[in-house]
Amino acid sequence: MSQLAQYIAEKRQQKPILSMTHVVYGYPSVKESLDWMATLLEAGADFIEVQFPFSDPVADGPTIVAACHGALHDQALTVEQCLKDIGQLGRDFPQARIALMSYLNPMYRYGLEKLVKRCAEENILGLILPDLPYEQAGELREYCNAHGVDPVWLVTPVTPKDRLAFLASEARGFLYCVARSGVTGNSNHNGKQQSLDDYLAEINEHTNAPIGVGFGIREKAHVDALKGKADVAIIGSALLDAYNKGGKEEGLKLFNSLFNA
To answer: Of 60, 85, 122, 241, which one is the catalytic site residue?
Structure first.
């Protein structure tokens, strides 16, 4: 069992489901994004999924796209500084874990071997690159195996059954299960819960790794519906919408309503 999977297994003995919050590094500024991450960790977030911004985040909806563009607009962000900053955050909050999410372009420019080595040095044990297919990730998988970092694969409800089974069987730290087709953001789960249950049940047949579910989770009912079927509930756009509306106070209100109520 990987370090990340072991962390989830131990935490799950204390909670029916864990929380992962998604924050865009550098939005609206580096300091403000780090302050927001620290606030979420103080509130009890089990994971922070930190997105290093990219100009063309193809898996993301309007809210996160706008945050990425805002972060890149008038700041010179670097992968190295991001790793240093979130590594320090992890040391400040050793009870939680941080996963790095981005797209292949900025990570490839930084250097994949260097990236994985630095992630390990900063205790960033999960790496999420949605636009890097498993078949094209041979070198990355080798680097991750060498340094104890888990590449996190994504599956969706329209992933072909044989591929879903394959990716689920290859998952180590956790498997990122997209709750519905499309990009991040608004979603209506009403009337679709049975199909989501079937989808998660099928995934559980093929993996021994923990399961995280994201995309469209906005209400406590969505989180509660995952209990007993998944290990981690991932909230991104809804949290950013709340933050944009009323800063940390409004964002924290939403987080607490989902996970601490």
So the answer is: 60
